[in-house]
Design a protein that fits this description.
246 residues, alpha/beta, 7-stranded parallel beta sheet, 10 strands
Length: 246
């Protein structure tokens, strides 16, 4: 699944560089994205010096050296491996208002070619937990993390217990995500199956934030057999791509 998603992602990056001279991308970092990013960094034919990277979200108050820091994951899993020079980290340890303003101005300066996303166990998109704000115009915002989201982070072994998980984060807004030319979500694992069912078998609703992806004209969701287990199989011939688990 990671390889199939990376092939599509790499093709989009190469096409943007060919057509516009550079590529502007958004990257999610989490346990679910590790294999995908590993495959992407090994993709041939990408001049990473021409790629500008924006981060999807980051905890507030978490040091960059912490294993759960998404900045650390972005650096380790993508930037250091490829030699990308133009990137925008969300410094959750800094002046948060300034970080949000700066990141919002940078990402709004030109269209984004492709965003790599995940979907949370509670259906969140970036850190937009339910009920998500579908109307916020600002590209980045400060959000409060719900208990289900924080428990997911403990389950992924980034934190010893829920009390260690930050209460707030900087997140890309839903509207900003939907402005991206192409969206690609990688969602493996049985723990994601209820969220996938809610987002793609249910109504489009702020209570299932990733359901809003169904309104985008160019989106691909990669699932494995576990994350797709509760879905109506008729959907597979529509907007959802399903790859077998390893």
């Amino acid at each position: 699944m990671g390889r199939a998603a990376a092939e599509q992602a790499a093709a989009a990056i190469r096409a943007a560089i060919r057509d516009r001279g550079s590529a502007r991308i958004v990257v999610a970092t989490a346990a679910s994205q590790k294999e995908f990013l590993e495959e992407l960094t090994n993709s041939p034919g990408i001049d990473w010096r021409l790629v500008e990277v924006f981060h999807l979200d980051e905890y507030i108050g978490l040091d960059i050296t912490h294993p759960g820091s998404f900045r650390k994951m972005l650096l380790d899993q993508l930037i250091y491996k490829t030699g990308i020079l133009n990137y925008h980290l969300l410094d959750g340890d800094g002046d948060v208002a300034s970080v949000v303003q700066s990141a919002s101005q940078a990402i709004a300066s030109a269209p984004i070619d492709i965003a790599f996303l995940g979907i949370g166990e509670n259906g969140h998109l970036a850190f937009n937990d339910p009920p998500a704000d579908f109307e916020e115009e600002e590209p980045y915002l400060v959000v409060t993390l719900d208990e289900a989201c924080r428990r997911q982070q403990v389950g992924e072994a980034w934190f010893a217990d829920i009390t260690a998980v930050p209460l707030q984060a900087i997140s890309m807004s839903v509207k900003q995500i939907l402005k991206v030319r192409e969206l690609l979500a990688v969602v493996p694992g049985p723990q994601k199956a209820p969220a996938i069912k809610a987002c793609f078998n249910g109504e489009i609703s702020p209570m299932a934030p990733a359901s809003i992806l169904r309104t985008h004209a160019n989106v691909t969701v990669y699932l494995d057999e576990d994350s797709a287990a509760l879905l109506d199989r008729k959907l597979y011939s529509g907007s959802i791509s399903s790859a077998p688990s390893k």
